[in-house]
Specification:
The protein is 56% helix and 0% strand. The chain contains four helices and no strands.
C-alpha cells in the first residue's frame, strides 16, 4: 500500500481589516431607522444589513439622549493629552532649583575640604627658617 501524497494548498493572504468609522450623519440615519423598527426581528435584520452591533446602537442612543453631538462624530484614538497644571510646573521648576543648589553646595564643600587638606600639607612642610 502506497502512502497518500499530500498536496499543499495555496494560502491566500488578505489585507488587514480596517476599523469602520461612522459619521454623525450616518449614526443619526441608523438611529432613525432603528427607531422606526417595530416588528419582531426587524431591528436585528436592520443591524445585520447595516453591519453594526447592537452595542454600538446602544452607545449611539445614549450619546444622542445625553445631547452629546460631539460623541456622535468620529473619535480620535489614543491617550488623551494631559494639560499640565501650573502648580505641577512650579513644583518641577523648584525641584530643579533645589537639585542645582544641592549640587553647588556639594561642590563648595568639596572645595573647602580640599583647601583644608592643602593647608595641612603646607603646614607639614619645613619652613625656610628651619632648613639646615
Amino acid at each position: 500500500m502506497e502512502p497518500a501524497l499530500v498536496v499543499p494548498q495555496e494560502i491566500e493572504v488578505t489585507a488587514k481589516a480596517k476599523r469602520r468609522r461612522f459619521t454623525a450623519a450616518q449614526k443619526l440615519r441608523i438611529l432613525r431607522l432603528a427607531d422606526t423598527c417595530t416588528k419582531v426581528g426587524e431591528l436585528g435584520a436592520m443591524l445585520r444589513r447595516e453591519g453594526i452591533y447592537s452595542s454600538s446602537l446602544t452607545g449611539w442612543r445614549r450619546a444622542r439622549d445625553a445631547g452629546e453631538l460631539g460623541a456622535l462624530g468620529p473619535k480620535k484614538r489614543g491617550p488623551k493629552p494631559v494639560v499640565p497644571d501650573a502648580r505641577d510646573k512650579q513644583i518641577a521648576e523648584l525641584q530643579r532649583l533645589v537639585a542645582k543648589t544641592e549640587a553647588r553646595a556639594r561642590h563648595a564643600e568639596a572645595l573647602v575640604a580640599l583647601q583644608k587638606k592643602v593647608a595641612d600639607l603646607l603646614s607639614q612642610l619645613p619652613s625656610e627658617d628651619e632648613t639646615p
